[in-house]
Amino acid sequence: MGVWLMIALGPTGAGFMWLLLFSIMAGVLLGFTGAVASFGLNLITVAGLSVLVLKKEITWTLLPENEIAIWAVKSVNFICINAIVAASIGFIIARIIRTAKNETRRRIRLDQEIQARIRTEKENKALTERLYQSQKMEAIGTLAGGIAHDFNNILSAITGHTELLLMEAGLPEQVSSSLTKINQAADKAKGITRQILTFGRQSQSVKASNDLGEITRECIELIKVGIPAGVHLYLEIQPGPFPIIGDKNQLFQVIMNLLTNGIQAMDGLPGSREKRLALFLAPMPDTLPRDRYGLSPDQSYLMLKVSDTGKGIAREHLNRIFDPYFTTKRKGMGTGLGLSITHSIVKDHGGEIWVDSTLVKGTGFTIVVPAQKQVHSAKPEKGNLLLLGNERILMVDDEPEVLEVHQSLLEHFGYRVEPVETPDAALEVIRDHPGEIDLVLIDQKMPGMTGDALGARIRSLCPDLPLVLCSGFPGEKTDYSDFQAVIPKPVTATLLAQTVRKVIDEG
């Protein structure tokens, strides 16, 4: 192209025309900045060669003038061609590198987006599972509370009629003995309903003076029923008492969680392996390093240890076992909440919990909780409280069997009882007989209106009328402010009569 331009335009014109075309080509390849840079570079080159030729300061001046001009044009063409080739190669390489970098960045962004989406999907799945688990536990709790309520009503009829028979004079010794045993069996059944309410979290959370030894023994009695064949239970409970200020239901839940975990840890072990579940309860020994576990040097503590000979816990999992929803059990065997709740309850009671575990050999959990410094035992009221009366009592309960037995018990003590099965009927009696009712005994769980709601309605009609709530299903949201007393179902004849007499006398 340079030779053609030289013939058509002459040596000088050809050089500058090539410079223009080169700049245009560079602009197409490299853009505006590249075009300006290449135009300036080649302009300096052509101008420099022209000056040297005109001043004849190079050896090329020995040649005829036309040959010098031709050689100069050829030199310019050679420089331009090399510049174009170099620029083109540089452009191609730069484009390849830029494309590769862009592709790498695109792949990184795409990978990050995929990983973020995977994490989001995992989190959403985990949240869904937690929500499902929470709803399932809430449903189980509601079901457990409902079962306990119905069971308490059945027990109320059993214990009430049994006590009525025991009050009869001249019973044969064998009959009296059998009735007493029925009552004792009913008392054990009461304990089961309390445990059901604890499991369903339908019982109130109240810290009071309790004996950790008694709570532990209740847990043992319940867990014995569910211990698989081949698992041996070893107990070492030192002579008590073990006084503690705490929530009995929550402490019961802690011990049950640890015992249940121990049993599940030994599930699937070979038959030749020893399966041992051990529980130890005693005052905390002085040899235990208090500073290691952050325990107060001036406080007395109780120590409870639960150990098993199960599979053990891997070292990398030990720091996470108290995390919510963390579990090493296979799917369907655990929620990951038991140890988290246990840890929370122990901490709330001012205690500490730690774990020691060795793979294949087993796991041991140790709990220390502050002991109560002084114990003030409440003395039960004995026969010094008058049980008899002749006042008129309105009794409200949706269960006819419960109404019948409580009516019979109170009438045995001389009271006049008017039983009704619905809250609306109770309100109607109060409106129709103002001032004639001396006390209202109300069941908590009734269709259409709860006992505390009925109490509020009665209080608005008769502000001074004594009210007693009787229920086996109190619930944490029950409002007791309108009641002078609350008695649990199933209620004994003595407690029922004592409560009624006391509330009426105190006005």
What topology emerges from the helices and strands here?
Layout: H1 2-55, H2 65-167, H3 173-199, E1 207-211, H4 212-226, E2 231-237, E3 243-247, H5 248-265, E4 275-283, H6 290-293, E5 301-308, H7 338-348, E6 352-358, E7 362-370, E8 392-396, H8 400-412, E9 416-420, H9 423-432, E10 439-443, H10 451-461, E11 467-471, E12 485-488, H11 493-506
Parallel strand pairs: 2-4, 8-9, 8-10, 10-11, 11-12
Antiparallel strand pairs: 1-3, 4-5, 5-7, 6-7
Helix pairs in contact: 1-2, 2-3, 2-8, 4-5, 5-7, 9-10
Computed CA radius of gyration, to the nearest angstrom: 46 Å
The dominant shape is elongated
For the biggest sheet, the summary is:
5 strands, mixed
Low-confidence stretches: 1-12, 58-63, 375-385
Number of helices: 11
Describe this structure in words.
Helix 2 (65-167) packs antiparallel against helix 3 (173-199). The protein has eleven helices and twelve strands. The chain is elongated. It has 507 residues and is an alpha/beta fold. The protein has helices spanning 2-55, 65-167, 173-199, 212-226, 248-265, 290-293, 338-348, 400-412, 423-432, 451-461, 493-506; strands spanning 207-211, 231-237, 243-247, 275-283, 301-308, 352-358, 362-370, 392-396, 416-420, 439-443, 467-471, 485-488. 55% of the residues lie in helices and 15% in strands. The strands form three sheets. It has a five-stranded mixed beta sheet with strand order 2-4-5-7-6, covered by helices on one side. The chain has a five-stranded parallel beta sheet with strand order 9-8-10-11-12, with helices on both faces. Strands 1-3 form a two-stranded antiparallel sheet. A hairpin with a 3-residue loop joins strand 6 and strand 7 (362-370). The longest helix is centred in the N-terminal third of the chain and has 103 residues, at 65-167.
